[in-house]
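Worked example

This section walks through a single chain of length 205. The input is the sequence exactly as stored; nothing has been trimmed or padded.
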Amino acid sequence: MNQLVRLTLVRHGETIWNREMRLQGSQDIPLSEIGLAQAEAVAKRLSAEQFHALYSSHLQRAHKTAETIASRSQVPHHVAEDLRERHFGEVEGLTREEILRHYPEFWNGDHTYDVAGVESFVALRDRAHQAIDKIADHHLGEHVVIVSHGGTINAFLNAFLNAISAGLHGSGVNKLGNTSITRVFREADGSWQIIEIGCTAHLDG
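Given that input, the structure is written out below as tokens.
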């Protein structure tokens, strides 16, 4: 039996809060008009590929993006709540400028935030890795599309690259554009390999 699992990880489409540079975290913000168009664009691109299942976060920005993909590709859409974005506690809804003004140490470069209610980066990384590993376990030999969030996808990449010290991936380190595509695969021995990160060619016109 083929044990290799190929995953296509998609960040959700744009929301108004994305445009306003507001930290969304666990807040359930819908897609903007631009985000809906982006979802259609990535759905069109992925409709040219064969994949066997589709998973998404329950938050509507990811769920709607996934539904748009599912409507074109006619694959089953499953919801996995552990694919949700990181919880940022009391700073959710604030702009970057507001956060820096009220919490000047918030982006301190070491993934630790001294703010009430913030999910730790380690907790996010472990949650994302476990959730995606579990999906892979159910789809050996298959290609699966996962629609999630920028922070969650970056944390997953961090989990198997051990990239904290290198600064390549983590919370807000490597910017993934809306509806960007990241491709990875898991080999038979359980190790992960990267094919590409953050491709948005489908948005180029």
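What to look for: The first strand starts at residue 5 and ends at 11.
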